């Protein structure tokens, strides 16, 4: 059995309620809800793989719309004891999925400001979201493989929050097509 994970119900609108071989989990938006929901699901059941689908903002000018595999995640809303941006006081700076793909920066706020984009880009990320770091970290604690597919919903600039509401359904349909191709269901 595999676990299909998304943060927000609108990211799964194109997905049927019952997909053979998969259980479905909605975590809620942000690192803490994501970590809590995934931890609880992994305590209650055994899974061969976690498959995360959802949206992300593009902060790299070379990243266009489409679906991207995530190779690793960093956090953009933390600072180390010495004040170093992107460093956490006790968690690893970067968590990896074991797959080829893009680096995503996770934080508990919706990025839609050019200065924030510039700072986050300096950490080496090309995409931003609000859950990926926490989901990878939890999957590692349980030693369960994780794959993450992110559809670009916006450019993480002014107005991105309004744009997300409009494009999330399109992103869900793109994710469903990619999911069907990869998993055959």
Automatic annotation (TrEMBL):
<feature type="domain" description="Nucleoside phosphorylase">
    <location>
        <begin position="99"/>
        <end position="165"/>
    </location>
</feature>
<dbReference type="GO" id="GO:0019284">
    <property type="term" value="P:L-methionine salvage from S-adenosylmethionine"/>
</dbReference>
<dbReference type="InterPro" id="IPR035994">
    <property type="entry name" value="Nucleoside_phosphorylase_sf"/>
</dbReference>
<dbReference type="Pfam" id="PF01048">
    <property type="entry name" value="PNP_UDP_1"/>
</dbReference>
<dbReference type="GO" id="GO:0009116">
    <property type="term" value="P:nucleoside metabolic process"/>
</dbReference>
<dbReference type="InterPro" id="IPR000845">
    <property type="entry name" value="Nucleoside_phosphorylase_d"/>
</dbReference>
<dbReference type="GO" id="GO:0008782">
    <property type="term" value="F:adenosylhomocysteine nucleosidase activity"/>
</dbReference>
<dbReference type="GO" id="GO:0005829">
    <property type="term" value="C:cytosol"/>
</dbReference>
<dbReference type="GO" id="GO:0008930">
    <property type="term" value="F:methylthioadenosine nucleosidase activity"/>
</dbReference>
<protein>
    <submittedName>
        <fullName>Nucleoside phosphorylase</fullName>
    </submittedName>
</protein>
<feature type="domain" description="Nucleoside phosphorylase">
    <location>
        <begin position="26"/>
        <end position="81"/>
    </location>
</feature>
